[in-house]
Design goal:
The chain has about 775 residues and is of the alpha/beta class. Helix content is about 45%, strand content about 15%. The protein is built from 31 helices and 22 strands. Homodimer; enzymatically active. Interacts with PPP1R3B; recruits the phosphatase PP1 which dephosphorylates and inactivates PYGL/glycogen phosphorylase. Its EC number is 2.4.1.1.
Length: about 775
C-alpha cells in the first residue's frame, strides 16, 4: 500500500489546505510525509495491483472490501553491504499505525488440525485448534466522491484458554508463552515473488485469511435484507447475486473448499446446490505462467492441517473427472492432465486447477498473457469451457502514480485539457493536439528536468553519490528475477564501459543507469545478480577514463515510496523480460504515464502500450513469443552467441576472469555457468538486438525535441492503463455490478435516502 497520508489528502481534496495549515505551524509537509513508514504487505506487482484496485473501486463508488493479513513484519528492508543484499526485519508498526482501527467486536475463530467424524447428520470437523482472527480496518477513500471503503486486515490472536484447557495442568507459564505459536500466523510476510515455497506456516496464513474473510462475508450477508431467513435457515439462493469474490492468484484458493464446507457441513445445503452457488460466487485471476510459481500443496500437509478440506477437494475432483470422462471416454492422459491432484512422487494439489474448476470466470492480466493461459498453460480447461476465459489488462491508479508523485506534470496536463482526466484517463488523448506545440514540448522537458534534479539531490543526500542530472536516467526497477533479465542490462553496462575505454574521444551520450529491486532471501542467483551489478558499478564509477559519461547505481530498498521518487525522474524505462514470461507488468505503465520512453520486449502489457502509442514510439526489440518457442524447439545454444559476438565475449570473459572481482576471480562462476548451460530466459539470444536498440535510444536522446515529442505521444496514449478502466471491466464482465459516478453527499449534508451507492447491490 505504501504511505497513506498524501494519498488521503489528495483523494479528499485537502492537500493545499493541509500544506498551508502545517506551514502556519512552522512545519514542512514534505518532511512530515517522509516520516511515515511504507505499509509493505506484499511482494511486488501482485500486492501493488491490489492497492491500485482498492483506490479505483472506491473512486468508482463500488461497495468493495479488500481483505488480507495484517503482517507484523512486511517485506524485509534491504541493505546493501559490500555489494551484497542483507535483509532486515520491517518493523513497520513500531511507532503505531494511525490509519488502522482494531475491531475486536468482529473477532472470529479459525480452526486447524483435528479430525473428521462422519454420521447420519453429515461430516463434523472436531478436536481442532482454534486461533482468533482480529480485524483491523483501514479506510480507503475514493477520489473526490465522499466514498470511503474498507480494507480489513486480519491479525492472529490466541484464545485466552489456549493450551490451558487440556493436558497442561501444571505449566501455566509455558502455556502462556506458547500463545506465540498461534499468533505467529500473522507475524511475517513470505518474501517470495513468483516462487512457491510449500511451508506449513504459509498454508496456515492462506487458510487463516480465507476462513476469517468468508465468515465475515456470510455474517454481513445474513444481516442484510437479502439473507432473509425462513424459520429453519438462511436462503442462500441470492448469495452470488449479492456477493462476488475475486481470487487474486491462487493464494486464497482454499476459499473454494471452505465455502463448500460452510454450505454443506454447517448450513446443510445439498452438494449440488452448494457447488452451484460457490462457482457463481468465485472468479480467479491468474498472474503468472512460470511453473515454479504455481502452488502445488502436498496432500499429506493439507490432510494434517485441514482434513475436512482435503475430503471436499477429493469430492470436487471426483465429480470434475467424472464429467470429463463422460465427454472424453478412455482419454486417461487427459484425466491425468486435468486432475486437481497430481500423482507421482508426493501427491500434490494443483491450486490453479482448483481455482479454474471452482470459478465462473478466469482471467489473465494482459492480452498476450490471457492468450498464453488459454492456449498453453490451461489449454485443456479452455477447450472444455472457452467462455470462462477472459482478459483484463492491468492498470495503475493515476491518483498515486501521477497526481501524488508528479504534481508538476499533472498540473501541466490540467492546464492543457482540464482536470477531469484524473477520473477519466482516456481524456489524455487530447494531448495529441499539442505534440507539435513548441511551448508545451519545452514545458514537458522542463518538468522532467526538475524531477531529475530533485532525484539527483535525493541520491546525493541519502547515498552520497553525485550524478549528472543532464545525463539520460536509464532505470530498471522491479523484483530481481532471472526472467526479468537484470543480467542483460548488466551486460549492456559492461559493453558501454568497454566502448568508452576503447575510444575515449568518441561521442558518448552520458547515462546514469539505475537498477533497483529486492531478491527473495533464498534465491541464490538473484542475490548474485545484485552483487554483480554492484561489482560492475564499483569498477565503472571509479574509472577516470569514464568520468561522468557512465554512472551505475544500485537503488537500495526499492519500495512504493521510492518508486514515487524515481519514476517521475526517469528518461528510459527498462521492460526487458523474455517474451512470454511477464504476465503484464505495471511499472511499465507508471513510467509511460510519467514521461519516460520504454525499451522493451513484446511481452506483457508492453504489447498493448505499443499498440496504443504506436510501435515507433517505443523501443521494441528482441524475440517475440513465437521466436522463443521456435528457439526452444531447435534447442538454445548460448555458445553460438558467445562465439559470434565479440563484445558479448569480452563482457563474459571479464566477469569470468575476475575483472570485476579481483579479490575473488571465481566469484561469479555460478552466474556465467548459468548463462552458458541453463539459462531458461535466453539472455544471449536477445543481447545483440538489445545493444543495437540501445544505440537508437542514445541517438534519439541527443535530439531533445524529437525525444520529448515521443514522450508526449506516450503520455497521450497512457489512458487505457488506468486501473479505473480495468475495474470497470471486472465490474461489467465478471462481478455484474454498475460503477457509479455519483458523488455522495458529504456527512455534514443531509443524505437523500433514495440515493444508493450502487444500483445493483452486489458487494465485491
Amino acid at each position: 500500500m505504501g504511505r497513506t497520508l498524501q494519498n488521503t489528502m489528495i483523494n479528499l481534496g485537502l492537500q493545499n489546505a493541509c500544506d498551508e495549515a502545517v506551514y502556519q505551524l512552522g512545519l514542512d509537509m514534505e518532511e512530515l510525509e517522509e516520516i511515515e513508514e511504507d505499509a509493505g504487505l506484499g511482494n511486488g506487482g501482485l500486492g501493488r495491483l491490489a492497492a491500485c484496485f482498492l483506490d479505483s473501486m472506491a473512486t468508482l463508488g463500488l461497495a468493495a472490501y479488500g481483505y488480507g493479513i495484517r503482517y507484523e513484519y512486511g517485506i524485509f528492508n534491504q541493505k546493501i553491504r559490500d555489494g551484497w543484499q542483507v535483509e532486515e526485519a520491517d518493523d513497520w508498526l513500531r511507532h503505531g499505525n494511525p490509519w488502522e482501527k482494531a475491531r475486536p467486536e468482529y473477532m472470529l475463530p479459525v480452526h486447524f488440525y483435528g479430525r473428521v467424524e462422519h454420521s447420519a447428520s453429515g461430516a463434523k470437523w472436531i478436536d481442532t485448534q482454534v486461533v482468533l482472527a482480529l480485524p483491523y480496518d483501514t479506510p480507503v477513500p475514493g477520489y473526490m466522491n465522499n466514498t470511503v471503503n474498507t480494507m480489513r486486515l486480519w491479525s492472529a490472536r490466541a484464545p485466552n484458554d489456549f493450551n490451558l484447557r487440556d493436558f497442561n495442568v501444571g505449566d501455566y507459564i509455558q502455556a502462556v508463552l506458547d500463545r506465540n505459536l498461534a499468533e505467529n500466523i500473522s507475524r511475517v510476510l513470505y518474501p517470495n515473488d513468483n516462487f512457491f515455497e510449500g511451508k506449513e506456516l504459509r498454508l496456515k496464513q492462506e487458510y487463516f485469511v480465507v476462513a476469517a474473510t468468508l465468515q465475515d462475508i456470510i455474517r454481513r450477508f445474513k444481516a442484510s435484507k437479502f439473507g432473509s431467513t425462513d424459520s429453519v435457515r438462511t436462503v442462500f439462493d441470492s448469495f452470488p447475486d449479492q456477493v462476488a469474490i475475486q481470487l487474486n492468484d491462487t493464494h486464497p484458493a482454499m476459499a473454494i473448499p471452505e465455502l463448500m464446507r460452510i454450505f454443506v457441513d454447517i448450513e446443510k445445503l445439498p452438494w449440488d446446490k452448494a457447488w452451484d452457488i460457490t462457482k457463481r460466487t468465485f472468479a480467479y485471476t491468474n498472474h503468472t505462467v512460470l511453473p515454479e510459481a504455481l502452488e502445488r500443496w502436498p496432500v499429506d500437509l493439507v490432510e494434517k492441517l485441514l482434513p475436512r478440506h482435503l475430503q471436499i477437494i477429493y469430492e470436487i475432483n471426483q465429480r470434475h473427472l467424472d464429467h470429463i470422462a463422460s465427454l472424453f471416454p478412455n482419454d486417461v492422459e487427459r484425466l491425468r492432465r486435468m486432475s486437481l491432484i497430481e500423482e507421482g512422487g508426493t501427491k500434490r494439489i494443483n491450486m490453479a486447477h482448483l481455482c479454474i474448476v471452482g470459478s465462473h470466470a478466469v482471467n489473465g492480466v494482459a492480452k498476450i498473457h490471457s492468450e498464453i493461459v488459454k492456449t498453453q498453460v490451461f489449454e485443456d480447461f479452455a477447450v472444455l469451457e472457452p467462455e470462462k476465459f477472459q482478459n483484463k489488462t492491468n492498470g495503475i491508479t493515476p491518483r498515486r502514480w501521477l497526481l501524488l508523485c508528479n504534481p508538476g506534470l499533472a498540473e501541466l496536463i490540467a492546464e492543457k485539457i482540464g482536470e477531469d482526466y484524473v477520473r477519466d484517463l482516456s481524456q489524455l488523448t487530447k494531448l495529441h493536439e499539442f505534440v507539435d506545440d513548441d511551448l508545451f514540448i519545452r514545458e514537458v522537458a522542463k518538468v522532467k528536468q526538475e524531477n531529475k534534479v530533485k532525484f539527483a539531490l535525493y541520491l546525493e543526500k541519502e547515498y552520497k553519490v553525485k550524478i549528472n542530472p543532464s545525463s539520460m536516467f536509464d532505470v530498471h526497477v522491479k523484483r530481481i528475477h532471472e526472467y526479468k533479465r537484470q543480467l542483460m542490462n548488466c551486460l549492456h553496462i559492461i559493453t558501454m564501459y568497454n566502448r568508452i575505454r576503447r575510444d575515449p574521444a568518441k561521442l558518448f551520450v552520458p547515462r546514469t543507469v539505475i537498477i533497483g529491486g529486492k531478491a527473495a532471501p533464498g534465491y541464490h542467483m538473484a542475490k548474485m545478480i545484485i552483487k554483480l551489478i554492484n561489482a560492475v558499478a564499483q569498477v565503472v564509477n571509479n574509472d577516470p577514463m569514464v568520468g561522468s559519461k557512465l554512472k551505475v547505481i544500485f537503488l537500495e530498498n526499492y519500495r512504493v515510496s521510492l518508486a514515487e521518487k524515481v519514476i517521475p525522474a526517469t528518461d528510459l524505462s527498462e521492460q526487458i523480460s523474455t517474451a512470454g514470461t511477464e504476465a503484464s507488468g505495471t511499472g511499465n505503465m507508471k513510467f509511460m504515464l510519467n514521461g519516460a520512453l520504454t525499451i522493451g520486449t513484446m511481452d506483457g502489457a508492453n504489447v498493448e502500450m505499443a499498440e496504443e502509442a504506436g510501435e515507433e514510439n517505443l523501443f521494441i526489440f528482441g524475440m517475440r513469443v513465437e521466436d522463443v518457442t521456435e528457439l526452444d524447439r531447435r534447442g538454445y545454444n548460448a555458445h553460438l552467441y558467445y562465439d559470434r559476438l565479440p563484445e558479448l565475449k569480452q563482457a563474459i570473459d571479464q566477469i569470468r576472469s575476475g575483472f570485476f572481482s579481483p579479490k575473488d576471480p571465481n566469484l561469479f562462476n555460478d552466474v556465467v555457468n548459468m548463462l552458458f548451460h541453463h539459462d531458461r530466459f535466453k539472455v544471449f539470444a536477445d543481447y545483440e538486438a538489445y545493444v543495437k536498440c540501445q544505440e537508437k535510444v542514445s541517438e534519439l536522446y541527443l535530439n531533445s525535441k524529437a525525444w520529448t515529442k515521443k514522450v508526449i505521444r506516450n503520455i497521450a496514449a497512457a489512458g487505457k492503463f488506468s486501473s479505473d478502466r480495468t475495474i470497470k471491466e471486472y465490474a461489467r464482465d465478471i462481478w455484474h455490478v454498475e460503477p457509479s459516478d455519483l458523488k455522495i453527499p458529504p456527512p455534514n449534508e443531509p443524505r437523500d435516502a433514495g440515493q444508493d451507492k450502487t444500483p445493483n447491490g452486489t458487494a465485491a
